[in-house]
Fold:
Amino acid sequence: FKMAAQRTYYFLCRGVRWASGGESHEARILSQFTQQAKPFAAAAPIRQQAVLNAMIAAANPQTSDEALDVACGPGLLACAMAKHVKHVHGIDFVPAMLTEARKTQADTGVKNTTWHQGDAYKLPFETNSFDIVTSRLAFHHLERPDAALAEMVRVARPGGRVVVGDIYSPQSRTRAAALQAMEILRDPSHVCFLPLESLKNLFAPVGLRPQVTWQALEGDVDSLLSRSFGTRANLEIVRERFALAADGSGDVGLPVWWQGTELRYVQPMAILSATVTK
Structure:
């Protein structure tokens, strides 16, 4: 990171990173996303076609391209991308997510995908292997997003495209802290929603200057909590904080409102894309 981005990152995230006890972060990821795999794959905000389309547009795919999706989860982006390129590889740390990815492949009927279990920090591919390298909604779960991005750039070919899509935190430190505190209660595998400038600054050490577009992930709180696996007590606290925010007497760092009896929210998402130069 640039120094200012690094300071912001640690201000927002230091408490979060050590808040979950002695369990390793890898163990939390495996535990949480094994439980989340099925409901995450089915969640309306995660399946939002406009977001998938925007990620694909940012990658500018060509029919001859070889693509890689890092932390591919249930394979939604990989299978959508497969319709535009020669072949897509998806890699994820969690076997249950790859099971869902294979189901997505079967449901969509695409044939040009290959799935791998592996580590975003040590991608099992040769340097300069892919024309497109993407990652969607994963960086906030990484303790070292800069290292993951460096790996994505390593395996991308010169002239290829690297695309990262993630939720970002408010500029206000008070609101950002409220968002962080809520999210770690909801999902113990969460690390940090970076501010937009910090996300952009991740690209500087690898010599890239990203272009940015924006999307919004809208959903209802009860559905969000139904696919969350924090403790029961923590999830009750999270719902109460959302309700207070909707009533104007609290804050979770996100727009929240009542739509009839349904409690709704929206998460801002940035899509950062850059052409690789080596």
Observations:
- The first helix runs from residue 3 to 17.
